[in-house]
From TrEMBL:
GO molecular function: L-aspartate:2-oxoglutarate aminotransferase activity; pyridoxal phosphate binding
PANTHER family: HTH-TYPE TRANSCRIPTIONAL REGULATORY PROTEIN GABR
Keyword terms: Aminotransferase, Transferase
Protein name, entry field: Transcriptional regulator, GntR family domain
Record EC number: 2.6.1.1
Keyword Transferase applies: yes
Domain named Aminotransferase class I/classII large: residues: 2-310
Enzyme type, top EC level: transferase
Superkingdom, taxonomy of origin: Bacteria
Signal sequence coordinates: none
Length: 336
């Protein structure tokens, strides 16, 4: 719907990224948007660089056109831009998937300076960024502030942004979008019609109304709820699992926890016996590894999080004590 394209474009304008409505393609979610980009732009001869850890469904979506995946390690304390530069030189990728705003699963934010140098590197290597901004409105530290770094695409003019309503508004509003340079819109649209033909009009009307009205109020309520849940989860972990470490994320929806030993897969198998489904680090590692990490989302109510941590601590007591019951097997966890 033209009104929705215009409202999404206006939101980019307000963030400092001038956007025309025809640069916006509305999709059934950020994941669907990512699959359109993978299908249109990364064929079997193309490399696609992703971060490690990363959001695993995005990796599958980016592979939709047959593109080959390579990973750039992301340090839990931040991006290593020398490693990015080396990976760009080594792989000469067509696409580079980046989550600069509350990266999933680490919650990291790429600084303004890093965005500028990352953008210059991409230009030098002729690679196109796919910027996943699904979490960008979920800043949790200062609820009165909507200040955020300028969009990554302001530093990388060929970048393609994907956005979502499902994190900032409601998980039931299955809508997302692509913001692409003019020159790519036609190609993306052609690829898209092989995947789906449109988003229900009712949902489009709802999102249009929100974007033209009280989106800030809705997002603020989400941020308040997530902040309370993040703090409850962090508090319970500090109390029950003091030898686990994590960096308190400034936003997003999960804690990325480092275990004292590499046993996340074993832990997730044992945790399931205690009624908790955990996503172990290797689920987020496109090239394997990261068994020392576990992602704990704080998307559910605080009392449930506290109970979950109690059960995880019980499971950890089994794994930490030798893991006899938890050896073998892979955790059957589906990361949503
Ligand atoms: C980083 C990231 N990108 C994309 C998605 C998918 O978004 P959507 O629900 O709009 O398809 C998610 C969902 O968890 C996500 O965390």
């Amino acid at each position: 719907m033209p009104d929705l394209q215009a409202a999404i474009a206006a939101a980019y304008d307000a963030r400092g990224l001038p956007t025309a409505p025809e640069q916006v393609i509305v999709t059934p979610g950020a994941l669907a948007a990512t699959a359109v980009v993978g299908t249109a732009l990364a064929g079997p001869r193309d490399k696609v660089l992703v971060e490690s850890p990363t959001y695993p469904n995005a990796v599958r979506a980016l592979r939709a056109g047959g593109g080959r995946i390579a990973a750039i390690p992301l340090d839990p304390s931040g991006w290593d831009l020398d490693a990015v530069d080396a990976a760009l030189a080594r792989h000469a990728p067509r696409l580079v998937h980046v989550m600069p705003d509350f990266h999933n699963p680490t919650g990291l934010v790429l600084s303004e300076r890093e965005r500028a140098s990352y953008g210059r590197m991409l230009a030098r290597h002729g690679a196109t960024a796919v910027v996943d901004e699904a979490h960008h409105l979920l800043g949790l530290d200062d609820l009165d502030s909507t200040a955020a770094p300028t969009p990554f695409a302001a530093h990388a003019k060929d970048a393609i942004c994907v956005g979502s309503a499902s994190k900032s508004v409601w998980g039931g509003l299955r809508m997302g979008w692509i913001r692409a340079p003019h020159a790519l819109v036609d190609r993306l649209t052609r690829a898209r019609v092989g995947l789906d033909l449109g988003v229900p009009v009712l949902e489009q009307l709802v999102l249009t109304r929100l974007l033209q009205g009280d989106l800030d109020g809705v997002v603020r309520a989400q941020r308040e709820r997530l902040r309370e849940q993040r703090d409850a989860l962090a508090g319970a972990l500090t109390e029950r699992l003091p030898d686990w470490t994590f960096r308190m994320p400034a936003g997003g929806m999960a804690l990325w926890c480092r275990l004292p030993v590499a046993a996340a897969t074993a832990l997730s198998v044992e945790a399931e016996r205690h009624g908790v489904l955990l996503a172990p680090g290797p689920s987020f590692a496109p090239e394997g590894g990261l068994d020392r990490y576990v992602r704990l989302p704080y998307a559910v109510a605080a009392p449930l999080l506290v109970e979950a941590v109690d059960r995880i601590a019980d499971a950890w007591a089994v794994v930490g004590a030798g893991g006899a019951r938890a050896t073998g097997g892979t955790a059957p966890v589906l990361v949503a």
